[in-house]
Amino acid sequence: MFCRRSLLPAAALLALCFAPPAAAAPTSRIVNGTEAGPTDYPAQGYLEVDRPGPFVERCGGTLVGTRQFLTAARCAKADEDFPERFSVTLGELNLDPPNRDVYGVADVDVYSTYDSSTERGDVAMLTLDRPAAVYAVMRVVDLGETDPWRPGATATILGWGATEYNGDASNRLLEAAVPIRTDAECETAYETPFFDVETMLCAGAADPDQGSSDSCQEDWGGPLLVLDGSGSRALAGVFSTGFECNREGFPGVYARIGDDPLNSWVHSRTPEANFRFDHAPRANEPVNLISTSRHPEGAGYFTTFRWDLDGDGGFERSSASGTATHSFPAAGQQIVGIEASRAGGDKATAYFAFTVGADPNAPPSSQLAPPGATPAPAVAKPAGFLATIRSAKRPKVRRGRFNLSVRFARTAPAGIAVVEVFRGKRRIGIARARVRRGGTRRISVKLTPAGRRLLARSTTKRLKLRVRVRVGRRVLRSKTLTVRR
């Protein structure tokens, strides 16, 4: 079996870590992990840095923008002035060669007050040499969004690092669940000044007798992922250091991305799509949706804006001005998506949920706002989904069937999920699968005879469809996609 070993000498490994008082010098550390699913973590990447001489630094990282790759400063600091030494591999679970999607790096931005002696502020943002637009990027938690990474919450760690202290690295991506620890527990383990509550947090049971998990060597820069209120994953930390691997009493130490100063630093370097209303939206009344999307390179970067005004996963309207006028047909909660892009450059996508007020011209008896509904906010809030539909760019229909996968949020309702395929209002395909909360189901969807005839008669050999996932009458997600024969 091909395994990658760090070519850094032992002295260099020790220099990359901080030592807790009255303890041996530590190294970094996935221990007790399991293999990640093939479609679970599209934003996970593998970083290699060619050091001067025969040394190669290997780390993890996360795609947080179409060209923005977040990793640890310790992986980038020594060579930040030589971006040509960096390469990032995306879209791979198994790192046995050949690796097909490898990106160069155009720029390296290390957190300005990073301290290698204590690992404070251990984050760096790499700008890839071309957009990686085929991968879904990972959302970074917003400032004040503290509940997902509160002490006791369960987080997910990822990496190709060692599976035991000073052991061999894994050539397959591993994942593990770890609990967030309190700051007091971290301070007890590492003491001040080695634990900095402003830029660090800890995670990991650190109880090997109970089968605990931890990050290990070459997992540096890997993500600490948490679940937000909608059950979607978000990034709250970047793996930095610790004492040995899965050592009792010493949880792993991560850069504290959820709080300032690191939260603002990361967001300011990440392209983000957003919009506002010109007034609170009300049913059957035109309202302007105005893009407030931003890019690290400044105002005016984005030149094209696409809108998904019915929340079905398909962008049906495009504009260069960044403004869309729309009338929502009913009061209640609505979901709208926006995609901001630039030809040959970055693309940012986001979905938002908000409340549409009642039709001001409707009689009181026909007000459609649900009981207890609050006035619509002037600015939409990020929306999560109870399921995510994933497929090939244009799934191929074979013997009347095509494949897709559905990832269910942990908050998805239990039961049997029905996957329906529509052409207009006509249902032309169906499948069923039991909901797997927090997991992914691979589903084979069967087209009806009418659906097969429509595809067979298509002169382009393609058919645009809408796929909907529901449990009972509750729709978890819908998405527009094109199948081919």
Quick overview of this protein structure:
It is built from 4 helices and 28 strands. By secondary structure, it is mostly beta strands.
Question: What descriptors fit this protein?
Answer:
485 residues, mainly beta, Thrombin, subunit H, Immunoglobulin-like, 3 domains, seven-stranded antiparallel beta sheet, 28 strands, 6% helix, globular, disordered N terminus
Can you characterise this structure?
The chain has three domains: 1-270, Beta Barrel (Thrombin, subunit H); 275-382, Immunoglobulin-like (Sandwich); 387-484, Immunoglobulin-like (Sandwich), CATH 2.60.40.1940. The strands form five sheets. The chain has a seven-stranded antiparallel β-sheet with strand order 1-9-8-11-12-13-10. It is globular. Residues 1-29 and 366-379 have low confidence and may be disordered. The chain contains four helices and 28 strands. By secondary structure, the chain is mostly beta strands. The two termini are 39 Å apart. It is 6% helix and 36% strand.
Count of helices?
Answer: 4
List segments where confidence is low: pLDDT < 50 over at least 5 consecutive residues: 1-29, 366-379
**Most strands sheet:** 7 strands, antiparallel
Strand runs, count: 28
Q: Strands across the major sheet, in which order?
A: 1-9-8-11-12-13-10
Mean pLDDT: 81
Overall body shape: globular
Quaternary state of the chains: single chain
Helicity, in percent? under 10%
